[in-house]
Write a structure and sequence with these properties.
single chain; about 120 residues; mainly beta; Jelly Rolls; six-stranded antiparallel sheet; three-stranded antiparallel sheet; about 0% helix
Length: about 120
């Protein structure tokens, strides 16, 4: 631990299943944190889901050719270093294999993840 910052090695965090594939969630247990950050590996097309109160920022780190993020039924093509801000209530899913950094504001709460 650093005296003036919270530090997490996302590769060392245990991965958990999520609608997108597998996530390594950092800062979810930090009191008063403004956000959490997740390293997500999408293995195939993800399940459509939405959040009632979370805003998510997806930063595409790696992706297969032709990958996209579907937003309310409309595909949005992505490539490495594309960033998307997904507002609460927007139905979304990743299409194709990809690795993303997901910033969740406020910090992730599993009760706010609504799979359709």
């Amino acid at each position: 631990m650093h005296p003036t910052a919270e530090v997490v090695d996302l590769e060392a965090v245990e991965r958990v299943a999520c609608p997108c594939g597998w996530a390594r969630r950092g800062f979810t247990g930090v009191p008063h944190a403004p956000a959490s950050v997740h390293l997500v590996d999408v293995e195939a097309d993800a399940q459509t889901h939405r959040h009632a109160s979370h805003t998510e920022i997806y930063v595409i780190l790696e992706c297969a050719r032709g990958a996209a993020v579907e937003l309310d039924g409309e595909p949005c093509p992505v490539r490495p270093m594309t960033a998307l801000m997904i507002r609460p209530g927007v139905k979304h899913r990743a299409i194709g294999r990809m690795r993303i950094l997901n910033v969740v504001i406020p910090p992730f709460d599993p009760q706010d993840e609504l799979v359709d």
